[in-house]
Amino acid sequence: MPRIAQKYSRRQQILEALAHMLEVAPGERITTAGLAKEVGVSEAALYRHFPSKAKMFEGLIEFVEEAIFSRVSVIVSEESSAIPRLERTLLLLLGFAEKNPGISRILNGDALAGETDRLRTRVAQFYDRLETQLKQIVRDAEINEAIRPTVPAASAVNILLAAAEGRIGQYVRSEFKRPPTQNWQEQWQLLMAGFFRESVAQKPQHSLARQNSSVA
Predict the structure, then answer these.
(1) Domain with 102 in it: what CATH number?
(2) How far is residue 107's CA from residue 128's CA, in Å, rounded to a whole number?
(3) Is residue 67 part of a domain?
(4) Which domain holds residue 67?
């Protein structure tokens, strides 16, 4: 096997082992010694692929970013209206967390207790980026569908993301016994009830000019 392929394979093996340990040992802090034992290599071998444990966690966060945002782009291209775009995007997040319990602990912040602040900042940036994407969907709805949220867009989007984050938090707190997608369809209908209203369209300027001319 080529050397590059071997390196890639070992990196993947380390990340998969880290995700597995996060899943099977909720509440426990991961050590490099324990991770090396799980992978079946020495700690020195781990550091040949990742300079620090923080970089290993960052590798999992990068995996999340790529998996989520590449799929969000597909959703936006496939759906032409806001509600299914929002629904599929948040369901994507919940489904990903459900299928990757260990990584859900990173999304929740539970696995990052005692780790470097940089990791928590990185997760915060992930959610900020996702919230920005949701805001863009809402802004596009006002332009293309003549609808807007019944409250300011930032507040409206924030409550949707907060609901999804809350479900992930419950999943972690229940030690993965309470799936984040459970009852989500019913809850989504509740969240969407009264979420949008028709946008007040302004009359074109040329129409106003004609009206003023008539009055004159």
Answers:
(1) 1.10.357.10
(2) 12
(3) yes
(4) 54-202
